[in-house]
Amino acid sequence: MSAMPKEGDLAQEAEIVWLEDPTELDYVRQALDKVNTRKGKPRYERDGRLIGYSNLNANAPRSADSGLFTRRTFYLLPHDRPNQPDDPDGPYKVGSPLEAVDPRTLRPGSVGEKTTRSQATAQTVPTPS
């Protein structure tokens, strides 16, 4: 399962674990995934790379319908701007995917925000020389 997180979905988050330095990235994609553990690196089955994930509180409940835990993953796909910062024709040279947020705005229990940096507005996009 993968879905867009809402604040209420994140009440059981204890921490966010970064596998890469998020301050170097304009944005990360985020998704809610159903997994069988409360903490630790989850299995990652998307294209691209896993940037981080959330760990849950020790008493976080399992989903009644699936018996799994709902945790966030943070990732980038191969065509995302942070993977191709010098591509002036990339699909996100301006803007970002719907599920993307500035990683500097992420905290446990908080969805995060789009910022001028994550959106790469026309003023912040470098022009090719």
Describe this structure in words.
This protein has 129 residues and is mostly beta strands. The protein has one domain. It contains 1 helix and 6 strands. Strands 1, 2, 3, 4, 5 and 6 form a 6-stranded antiparallel sheet that branches. The radius of gyration is 15 Å and the shape is elongated. The protein starts with a strand and ends in a 10-residue tail after the last helix. The relative contact order is 0.25. Residues 122-129 have low confidence and may be disordered. It comes from Streptomyces lancefieldiae. InterPro entries: DUF6009. Residues 117-129 have a biased composition (Polar residues). This is DUF6009 family protein.
Topology of this structure?
Elements: E1 2-3, E2 13-18, E3 28-35, E4 49-56, E5 69-76, E6 100-101, H1 116-119
Antiparallel strand pairs: 1-3, 2-4, 3-5, 3-6, 4-5
Give helix and strand order, one letter per element, not per position: EEEEEEH
Tell me about the biggest sheet? 6 strands, antiparallel
Low-pLDDT regions: 122-129
The rounded distance between the terminal residues' Cα atoms is 43 Å
Give the overall silhouette: elongated
Query: Which radius of gyration do the C-alpha atoms yield?
Result: 15 Å
Organism: Streptomyces lancefieldiae
Biased composition (Polar residues): 117-129
InterPro entries: DUF6009
Protein name: DUF6009 family protein
Name a few traits of the molecule.
six-stranded antiparallel β-sheet; about 5% helix; disordered C terminus; mainly beta; DUF6009; DUF6009 family protein
In short:
The protein is mainly β and 129 residues long. The protein has one helix at 116-119; strands spanning 2-3, 13-18, 28-35, 49-56, 69-76, 100-101.
